[in-house]
Amino acid sequence: MKKIDFNKPLVVLAPLAGYTDLPFRSVVKKFGADITISEMISSNALVYKSEKTLRMIEKSPSEDPYIVQIAGNKPELVRDAVEILNDIDGIDGIDLNCGCPAPKVFNHGSGSNLLGDLKKLEEILSTVKRYSKKEYTTAKVRIGVNDKIPVDIAKAVEACGVDYLAVHGRTRAGKYKAPVDYDAIKAMVEAVSIPVIANGDIKDYDKAKEVLEYTKANGVMIGRGAIGKPWIFYQLKHGIEDISEEKKKEIILEHFDSVLEFHGEHGALMFRKLLHSYSKGYNGAHEFRDIINRVSDKNVMRDMIENFF
Fold this sequence. Notes:
There is one protein chain. This protein has helices at residues 22-30, 43-47, 51-57, 75-86, 103-106, 118-131, 150-159, 182-191, 205-215, 231-238, 245-263, 267-278, 285-292, 298-308, and strands spanning 10-13, 36-37, 41-42, 66-71, 93-98, 136-141, 164-168, 196-199, 219-222. By secondary structure, the protein is of the alpha/beta class. Helices cover 45% and strands 13% of the residues. Strands 1, 2, 3, 4, 5, 6, 7, 8 and 9 form a nine-stranded parallel sheet that branches. Helix 11 (245-263) packs antiparallel against helix 12. Helix 7 links the parallel strand 6 and strand 7 (164-168). The chain has two domains: 10-238, TIM Barrel (Alpha-Beta Barrel), CATH 3.20.20.70; 245-308, Orthogonal Bundle (Non-ribosomal Peptide Synthetase Peptidyl Carrier Protein, Chain A), CATH 1.10.1200. Residues 13-301 form the DUS-like FMN-binding domain. Belongs to the dus family.
């Protein structure tokens, strides 16, 4: 029996550099995400056995199914990276990043650069498919580099034999500011027979429902909308619009404890930026952040979280 069931719309955590580490993924998994994906992994760093990169691939026992996302611009390098992942247990699929707009990734010929050369995209994605021994091969794309070519991209990805496609409804030029083109996502859903997951500006329960209804996608992928509000996965999983303050506090504390468990004492310092996001919109948030910026003791920080939220 396959681990990913597309009979009902899925809720997927998008890979987000600097945020979707193991602690965060384990929290959203516990509270409702159907699929978790690693932060983007450089094929180059993987092939050169970077310790930091290998640690980024580690997963929580609860992450099932778990997919590792790689980026790369050369078929032979991508093949070597896939073969390394083949030997690591607990990974259910490999996703090729064809959407990252960051200049250092784009200029390297990876990420959204591949959308400007669909033959190259097919060559690299087909390499992942050919060499992977994992259950799933997937791709995450945007709808073009400068011009929108959503259907061409969807068909190129489908031709490589992937199991599903995730699409961020902006071009590379649109970065994270241009309006998301849900019509383009809808056109991709209609153009291919593989499942399509919609991504881009899905920041709350209502928006997720609206996007699913409009595009008829097989699921939604949430990235930046989950930072500071990971309970969106709980809401979508349980079909509830309102979430109690108690449940929010439970999720924040679960995240804090997971960060400490994975990163050790240093985790308290790392959690400061996350508390900045969590406290948005709360009364006294400004003062709370000021104090938090000076706290490094994990017990003091935990007490402050208990009292503030």
